[in-house]
Design a protein that fits this description.
AA-Vitamin_Transporters; mainly alpha; about 290 residues; 12 helices; membrane
Length: about 290
């Protein structure tokens, strides 16, 4: 159990570090191209490991429909939403907004799994977290300071990923397919879908900055996506969908700290908004549902 919680913390740190890499990448290439590079460079090493360990086989294609759904929910929509939002927002703001993922996970659990009922504590937690989102949007200031479209995209990505936790728990875990195989199938399918639908014009611009290139390949690809997928399934198996999503409120803290270190304008408002979002999640996690 201690190992599972250590993996939870590590996953939060990896996710939190991703936002600054996304910000740098989208300064040179489009969000869709950034998502493609992220997924592609995660897929290659995962495929190698899956083949080497014998974890993946063609027989698993009988579950193709589930792999496709997870490719869309936990890879394409999630990554595009977060990347597109980060391109329009300071990385610290995008990071703190991503802390809402556990709320969406809980709501999806309540709606689709019907394992718990809505309690007063849960309602209070949800209200706190959404208050943090509203505060971070600074509605009293002009939209030039904080992009509402950026916030919208982060919410889309967060909602998609929250739903994916529940889908994985309900449909994929009972199949007892090795996590490396699940991640490989999903990322591979995501790569194929992206090849069909995105515009690659100008993608080579990223090669003009070696630091950004390496950050995208290693930070977003190998570590931020490949490693995160493995940790993601391991944690769900050990701790369950809602507890696994707790890593998403470690990530915002890391993202805000990195943003501040990199010179972004992180004020008391951002820290208070982050406190509200995380506080809401903590209230929910400590409230017994039903």
């Amino acid at each position: 159990m201690l190992r599972a919680y250590a993996a939870l913390v590590l996953l939060g740190i990896i996710w939190g570090s991703n936002f600054i890499y996304m910000k740098w990448a989208t300064a040179l290439i489009s969000p869709a191209q950034t998502v493609f590079m992220r997924i592609f460079f995660a897929f290659i090493p995962l495929l190698i490991v899956a083949l080497y360990t014998g974890s993946i086989s063609l027989k698993q294609l009988r579950y193709l429909k589930h792999f496709v759904v997870m490719s869309v929910l936990a890879a394409i929509l999630y990554y595009y939403g977060i990347v597109a939002g980060t391109a329009l927002l300071p990385s610290s703001i995008a990071g703190l907004l991503s802390g809402i993922i556990p709320i969406f996970t809980l709501l999806a659990t309540l709606i689709f799994l019907r394992e718990d009922r809505l309690s007063l504590g849960v309602i209070m937690g949800i209200a706190l977290s959404f208050s943090g989102i509203i505060l971070s949007a600074r509605p009293w200031e002009s939209s030039e300071f904080i992009s509402l479209m950026g916030i919208f995209w982060v919410m889309v990505g967060s909602l998609s990923f929250g739903i994916s936790f529940v889908y994985a728990r309900y449909y994929l875990l009972p199949l007892e397919i090795p996590s490396i195989a699940l991640a490989t199938w999903q990322l591979g399918i995501a790569v194929l879908i992206l090849i069909l639908f995105i515009d690659f014009k100008g993608i080579t611009t990223i090669y003009s900055d070696r630091h950004v290139l390496l950050g995208t390949i290693i930070g977003l690809g190998v570590m931020g996506t490949g490693g995160a997928f493995l940790l993601y399934y391991y944690i769900i198996q050990k701790l369950g969908a809602v507890k696994a999503s707790v890593a998403t409120y470690i990530a915002p803290v890391i993202a805000v700290i990195i943003g501040a270190v990199m010179g972004e304008n992180v004020t008391a408002i951002e820290w208070f908004a982050l406190t509200l979002i995380i506080g809401g999640v903590i209230v929910i996690q400590t409230t017994k549902l039903g």
